[in-house]
Specification:
Layout lengths: L10 H60 L6 H19 L2 E4 L12 E8 L6 E6 L1 E4 L2 E4 L2 E7 L2
Parallel strand pairs: 2-6
Antiparallel strand pairs: 1-4, 3-6, 4-5
Helix pairs in contact: 1-2
Length: 155
């Protein structure tokens, strides 16, 4: 009986195929990891957007509260209680990253200020002279632009 011949095995080709498959799997795994990171980043951005939107809706109430408290008697117990509540609200907003945009005396920047009025002034042109309504930001994102009066050169 004749001997069956052993099939010729190309070890080098098998190793190359193995390495190619392994590299492909590693790329797929890295792609999946990057995808998960991107989804997580987008989810966080969405949460931040929703949080900023909710805070933005509360800002007019806060501004009205501040305006009303300017006329409240400072010595009354009810006014002290209301002020304490306002302080708690301010602490909450601060923890959420809300910052008031300080602008009086600074150079007007259309990316974070809204000019409502121009007024002639002896000082440098384009400076903010007065704030009509406060502005706020969370991180680098302006969620409410301060409404301001800007200086222009005297004629």
């Amino acid at each position: 009986m004749p001997k069956k011949s052993q099939p010729k095995i190309d070890i080098e080709a098998i190793l190359q195929e193995r390495d190619a498959n392994l590299a492909g799997w590693k790329r797929a795994l890295a792609d999946l990891d990057n995808y998960k990171k991107q989804v997580e980043k987008e989810k966080e951005m969405f949460v931040q957007f929703l949080k900023a939107d909710a805070i933005k809706k509360l800002l007019p109430i806060m501004d009205n509260w501040e305006a009303a408290m300017k006329n409240a008697p400072k010595d009354d117990e009810w006014a002290k209680g209301i002020t304490a509540i306002k302080d708690q609200l301010d602490d909450f907003f601060k923890k959420e990253g809300l910052e008031r945009i300080e602008c009086v005396g600074k150079k007007f920047d259309p990316t974070c200020h809204e000019a409502m009025l121009e007024a002639e002034d002896e000082g440098e042109e384009g400076m903010i002279l007065e704030e009509f309504e406060p502005g706020y930001r969370i991180g680098e994102r302006v969620i409410k632009y301060p409404k301001v009066k800007v200086s222009k050169k005297k004629v």
